[in-house]
Write a structure and sequence with these properties.
This protein has 248 residues and is an alpha/beta fold. The chain has one domain: 3-Layer(aba) Sandwich (Rossmann fold), CATH 3.40.50. It is 45% helix and 15% strand. The protein is built from nine helices and seven strands. A seven-stranded parallel β-sheet has the order 3-2-1-4-5-6-7, sandwiched between helices. Helix 1 crosses helix 9 and helix 3 packs parallel to helix 4. The longest helix is centred in the middle third of the chain and has 26 residues. 46% of the residues are buried. The mean pLDDT is 95.
């Protein structure tokens, strides 16, 4: 039986790389996107061209009704889930805490934290042996920012990713006896489009001198770690926070 994977925020960056690599490893992939249908469809076409099976599915993970519809569509078109990658996330412009608004914080936590918790809840309802599932694997996207704090720049993002770390540890223990493994990846400076969305398109180049490896990472280098955690090769790995950060 082929396994079914949902990747939130799968239309670009780390999410897109994960979709493509997972398909190469035999997963049927649901590529979630919030707004850019064309980008998501491009990832799907790339997977299909290589002989894989994939669909695109729209949902803003901050909205429960959209997430519920997404999970229904994935199950109807591909089958029950065995894998979830909680990759959808946002940053905002660089700012100090005393320059940030409540609206910014709500957006940051609604998408980066509550969206991940919501998707994990729905995945568990399909995966858990308690609910008649066959088990599965959840990989949450945290960040090295959870350790570093991102002062003067992304303090709220770092706090949200710290919440993801705690969520990962607790959920892993909660569902370990139900056939579900839960881990998190903490990327460091990775060369993706997310930096431009925060107004810092050159952020990786500007900060790579702070990385012991003396370079930024690639989306595919992060995807390699994610897909390993999804796989049966990581069958005894749960509750892990895996840094992919070049030593930073």
């Amino acid at each position: 039986m082929r396994k079914v994977l949902l990747v939130t925020g799968g239309s670009r960056g780390i999410g897109a790389a994960t979709c493509i690599l997972a398909a190469q490893k035999g997963w049927d992939v649901a590529v979630n996107y919030s707004a850019n249908a064309q980008a998501a469809d491009g990832v799907v076409e790339q997977i299909k061209a290589a002989g894989g099976r994939a669909i695109s599915v729209q949902a803003d993970v901050a909205h429960e009704e959209q997430v519920l519809a997404m999970f229904q569509k994935v199950r109807a078109e591909l089958g029950p889930l065995q894998g979830l990658v909680n990759n959808a996330g946002v940053v905002d412009v660089s700012a100090r805490l005393d320059e940030m608004s409540m609206a910014r914080w709500r957006r940051m936590f609604d998408i980066n934290v509550l969206g991940s918790m919501l998707c994990a809840r729905e995945a568990i309802l399909q995966m858990s042996t308690l609910h008649g599932g066959v088990g599965g694997s959840i990989v949450n996207l945290s960040s090295a920012a959870a350790r570093l704090g991102s002062p003067g720049q992304y303090l709220d993002y770092a706090a949200a990713k710290g919440a993801i770390d705690s969520f990962t540890l607790g959920l892993a223990k909660e569902v370990a006896g139900e056939g579900i493994r839960v881990n998190a990846i903490r990327p460091g400076l990775i060369d993706t489009e997310i930096h431009a969305s925060g107004g810092l398109p050159n952020r990786v180049k500007d900060l790579e001198h702070l990385v012991p490896a003396k370079r930024g990472g690639s989306a595919m280098e992060v995807a390699q770690a994610i897909v390993w955690l999804l796989s049966d090769e990581a069958s005894y790995t749960t509750m892990s926070l895996v840094d992919v950060s070049g030593g930073r």
